[in-house]
């Protein structure tokens, strides 16, 4: 069974309370529950991890080597300045998809640049919670193409 690690960065633990006009009303638990249900339908195992600490995120990415087949990552604000998370993703050679609930390209100028985008399969922005579901679908398609997941 293919395994997907969902990594949530800083402040995402406050979803549902934090700026709902930007991030919506779904909580992190809501997002993870929906992903888990979708993953079952695809025959994929999902693990969810959230941290407000850059080093903890990097450590979890490193630990994923040899045990995880794909990563869905919302690095939060680390998107715009964490070369260390970028390097961790690049180093482990695990296919990953970057997700953002809001359209980072339509927000403040400092949010327009992603250090993560160049080292992942793709980036999904501005579609809210459905972005996570689309990321899982894209990873499943990638797994099938690479014969990691059979249906």
UniProtKB/TrEMBL annotation:
Q: Supply the InterPro entries for this chain.
A: DHquinase_II, DHquinase_II_CS, DHquinase_II_sf
Chain positions of site Transition state stabilizer: 18
Keywords, in A-Z order = Amino-acid biosynthesis, Aromatic amino acid biosynthesis, Lyase, Membrane, Transmembrane, Transmembrane helix
Signal peptide span per the entry? Answer: none
| Residues where substrate binds | 74, 80, 87, 101-102, 111
Keyword Metal-binding attributed: no
Q: In which pathway does it act?
A: Metabolic intermediate biosynthesis; chorismate biosynthesis; chorismate from D-erythrose 4-phosphate and phosphoenolpyruvate: step 3/7
Among its keywords, does the record have Transferase? no
Residue spans crossing the bilayer: 115-135
Instruction: Describe the family membership recorded for this protein in Swiss-Prot or TrEMBL.
Output: Belongs to the type-II 3-dehydroquinase family.
This chain belongs to the protein called 3-dehydroquinate dehydratase
What species is this protein from?
Answer: Collibacillus ludicampi
Biological classification of the source:
Bacteria, Bacillati, Bacillota, Bacilli, Bacillales
